[in-house]
Amino acid sequence: WVQGTDPFLSARLFCRFESLPPSALLPLYSLIVARNAAHSLRALNPRAPPWDLPDDQYDAFTMGGAIQVTKHYVDESAAEARDNYNFGFYTASRHEIERMVNDVKERKQGYYGETDDFLYSALDAIGGLKGMAVVIMGSLEPWYEAVCIGFGASTCSTVEYNALQFDHPLIRTYRSQDFFALEDRPTFDVGFSISSFEHDGLGRYGDELDPNGDLTAMHDMESVIKPDGLLLLAVPVGKDLIKWNAHRKYGRTRLSALLSNWTLVAHPGLSKHRLDDPSPDTHFQPVLVLKNRRPPAPIDWDALLSQ
Asked: What is the spatial distance between Cα 217 and Cα 212, in angstroms, rounded to a whole number?
């Protein structure tokens, strides 16, 4: 047991090491979470998302059984639960952000590794972000805000379920519910969603369970990004999968649904091998450059990825 280590993974490793049955996973997980809470002198999260995908929503989440379901439970839905993980900080000083901007200018990789190389390629292809207003959907620490600043954006707005404190004059933050409630909501030239929408609707971050949460998020972006503006999207790809409740993986079925109202302009990092990867444990995220314009036809993945 190590404070800050994912308690689900810790419990799963213990089960394997001790050859315990699957029924021991939940009690072990609960024990580790309770131990963490006691060690930190804090309460348990009273609003944790469900341990299992609810039976009455199974068909909707899996598109009638077309999407496989495996287990990786994560609860970051409240402050009481967040300390179990080291996934992000929610706060950053101007000095920290400027250090990240310098790293971006040197083309260093951040948390998502090679996804950042794909993002740099995509930004080079579109000519950078000079003078553009950019919105970032989902953020735990301001690495992609630093990318925007490093590539010349005039402003960077971040929309996140949880409250953020990013201290920089070019960054403005909104809680999701506040942003979408604005009467005079701004629109943007470019949007980033880097490893964000695959979580929507799974309850991990305190959002309501919604089988189509990711599809709704993409639909909402149609009114956030200006017509013919761009969305740079990174989600995990591979054979269609829900790792309840950590994230989704996108194969031919769900990715087609996710992109149905957008025109795919470029796809750094995406290949047929990656799209069809059957492993539930890989976490590969290419960057899809999407134009806010309805496509002339659904994507033919074989034709696209054979080029």
From this structure: 9
Q: Which of 86, 72, 92, 73 is nearest to 36 (CA)?
A: 86
Q: Report which residue type is found at 172.
A: R
- φ, ψ dihedrals at 193, nearest 5°: -135, 100
In our burial notation (b when 16+ CB lie closer than 10 A, e otherwise), range 208-241 reads ebbbebbbebbebbeebbeeebbbbbbbbbbbbb
pLDDT at residue 84 greater than cutoff 80: no
Residue 119 Cα distances to 49, 135, 149, 277, angstroms: 32, 15, 14, 21
**Could you give the 3-state DSSP secondary structure of residue 88?**
coil
126-182 pLDDT, tens digit per residue, is 999 999 999 999 998 999 999 999 999 999 999 998 889 999 999 999 999 999 999
* Global confidence as pTM: 0.91
